[in-house]
Amino acid sequence: MDEIVRKYGKQGLYTQQLFRYRTRLLQSMGPAIELGRSFICGEFQKSYSPLLLLWKGIGAFVGRNPGYRVLFGPVSTSNDYHSASRRLLVNFLKADRFDAELARMVRPRRPFRATSRMRWAASDIRSIRGLDQISEVIEQIEADHKGVPILLRQYLKLGGRLPGFNVDPGFNNALDGRILVDLCATDLKFLQRYMGKDAAGLFLDFHRVRLHDWRRAS
């Protein structure tokens, strides 16, 4: 991100097409990596291996360039999902993973507006505990029983937080959450999985994070 902004300004960022950024947001993130769209061929989409390879590629880049500790970009929920599922997911993420401080510096260009009536009260949403439970609820809504999108699940497992949601007409009206992951706040076991133990250790040492302060990797 730093090289792109230096050369083109914030207009050079892909996510600037989806969200309006205040300059101080980019300054507050420091060196960061913007992740754009990723595509996996249809015949491989039910396999975890392609997604694992994508994350290992990102991990390898960070391992070689440890100054980059922040990942950000759009994480999409397809328009194939029922509007009730998308609304429920947004409300859950706002209650569980919303970043209010960042939200003051980010504005969606086309804010998400639900087209279905909400069947759950706010207290019901707050009672949902974790990704697995919200995914089970969505599975009950969807005709094909799909749950929370797998890429979103992975971002959230890395500790991702969302300051805003946008609808992208150029991407079949997909619901985009603007995700941000601070890798120094990511569980060690995930860093080791995607970066390798040695590279994860060097990365944390670069940022002066003590290994004994982290949860022990399984």
Descriptive account of the structure:
The protein has 218 residues and is an alpha+beta fold. The chain has one domain (2-213). The chain is built from ten helices and six strands. It has helices at residues 2-8, 23-29, 49-64, 83-96, 100-103, 122-127, 130-141, 150-157, 188-195, 197-206, and strands spanning 19-21, 32-34, 70-77, 106-108, 165-168, 174-182. The chain has a four-stranded mixed β-sheet with strand order 2-3-6-5, with helices on one face. Helix 3 crosses helix 9 (188-195), helix 3 (49-64) crosses helix 10 and helix 9 packs across helix 10 (197-206). The radius of gyration is 18 Å and the shape is globular. The model is unreliable at 214-218 (pLDDT under 50).
Compact overview of the structure:
This protein has about 220 residues and is α+β, with helices and mostly antiparallel strands. It contains ten helices and six strands. It is globular.
